[in-house]
Amino acid sequence: MLSRFSSCRMVAIIVLLLLVLGGTAFAGNTAEVKVTDASGRNVTVPGNVTRVICSGSGCLRYLVYLQGQDLAVAVDDMEKSRNMFESRPYFIAHPELREKPLFGEFRGHDNPELIVSLNPKPQVIFKTFGNMGHDPEELQAKTGIPVIVLNHGQLNVGKKDMDETLLMMGKMIGREKRAKKVIAFLNDTIADLRKRTAGIPDAQRPTCYVGGIAYKGPHGLTSTEPTYPPFFFVNAKNIAAEPEAKSKQLQQTTFSRESLVAIDPEYIFVDLSTLQGGSEVNALRQLQSQACYQILSAVKKGKIYGVLPYNWYSQNHGSILANAYFVGKVLYPDRFKDVDPAKKAEEIYTFLVGKPVFREMKEAFGKMPFTRIDLAKVD
Fold first, then answer.
1. How far apart are CA 106 and CA 46, in angstroms?
2. Per-residue pLDDT tens digits for 52-82
3. pLDDT at residue 9 greater than cutoff 70
4. Does one domain contain both 146 and 273?
5. pLDDT single digits (tens) 117-141
6. What CATH number is attached to the domain comprising 321?
7. Domain range holding 352?
8. pLDDT for 217
9. Considering just the CA atoms, what is the radius of gyration of the chain in Å?
10. Is 254 in the same domain as 220?
11. How far apart are the first and last CA of the chain?
């Protein structure tokens, strides 16, 4: 009798365990979370996201910052292309991304047919710049996969948007702690730059200009930014800055040759993305050969400096910060005595993308990043 009772009890326990374990597994596989994305859409996503694709400029970069590149099951064609000079640190650090399957074209022009044919399929589609390329709602309807629109944000005025995006992505892929570390690292780096250059009298801040800023491709010397972040973070006197610049988001603009010559900045920095353009739009060639620029003080005194491209498939934030340390070293050497810009760049890249890639970028751009450029030697 006791034996029969014990047997029944054992069976009951086993059944109960199976139900509990089965129920747990079931809940784990089907648990869902409702989120509100940057466009205000309410989207239901899996509670445990391990497979994603990143659509739009800068989206995959953020996944790399979160150390989640292995979760990407496919990439857009930007990650398949090879530029003359590669200026995306996250891609240099992770060339394996090129080997992943294709899901669409760059800048958010996704291909629903390619996406649904992926094996394994993504559980979530992250999408920056939701107003570009394929409509998020239509893409979700065609693929049956949740689409999360994200604000790309920026390091200066748009920092809050950027932080929120990192945190949302981090929570969804189980990298929330990493997201907080990235945000803290960026904040601390910016704070260090500002502290080093605080309190410098206006009379002791030399005038400067940056040209050759990329925007959907390479541009010449007159392509600049009133809110160029490296200048902004070291309190530089940017001749292209507008009175309300500090309250504006990053934006490329054209500064006239006449204004550049008339104001005559003491230092000129050249974004080396300009090298990817032909001779007519290469800022260094323009400084070297166009007569109107020969009267510039910076040209006469040899105060032309190369900085890393940063606006290539949206902003490479590590390059912005690395450039800021180099600009600070040039403009205020006493405030940056303890800084080696090249070593600082490697420190920044190692944290953000997992590998030191500055040396490789410097070689790719003819060893001109973070150096004074002799225009007579420009080919």
1. 26
2. 999 999 999 999 999 999 999 999 998 887 6
3. no
4. no
5. 999 999 999 999 989 889 999 999 9
6. 3.40.50.1980
7. 200-377
8. 76
9. 25
10. yes
11. 98
- Rounded to an integer, what distance in angstroms lies between the CA atom of residue 239 and that of residue 348? 28
Please identify which residue in the block is written with the tokens 């500090």. 246
Give the number of residues written for the chain.
379
Among 161, 187, 213, where does a domain finish?
187
125 token code pair: 């589609």
pLDDT in tens, 20-58: 344 333 233 458 999 999 999 999 999 999 999 999 999
Last residue of some domain: 150, 165, 187?
187
Strand order across the 237-238 sheet: 237-238, 207-211, 267-271, 304-307
How many domains, the chain?
Answer: 2
The answer to whether 148 and 43 have CB atoms below 8 angstroms apart is yes
102-106: long-range pairs with CB below 8 Å, 24+: 102/74, 102/75, 102/76, 102/77, 103/53, 103/55, 103/74, 103/75, 103/76, 104/55, 104/76, 104/77, 104/133, 104/134, 105/76, 105/77, 105/133, 106/57, 106/76, 106/77, 106/78, 106/313
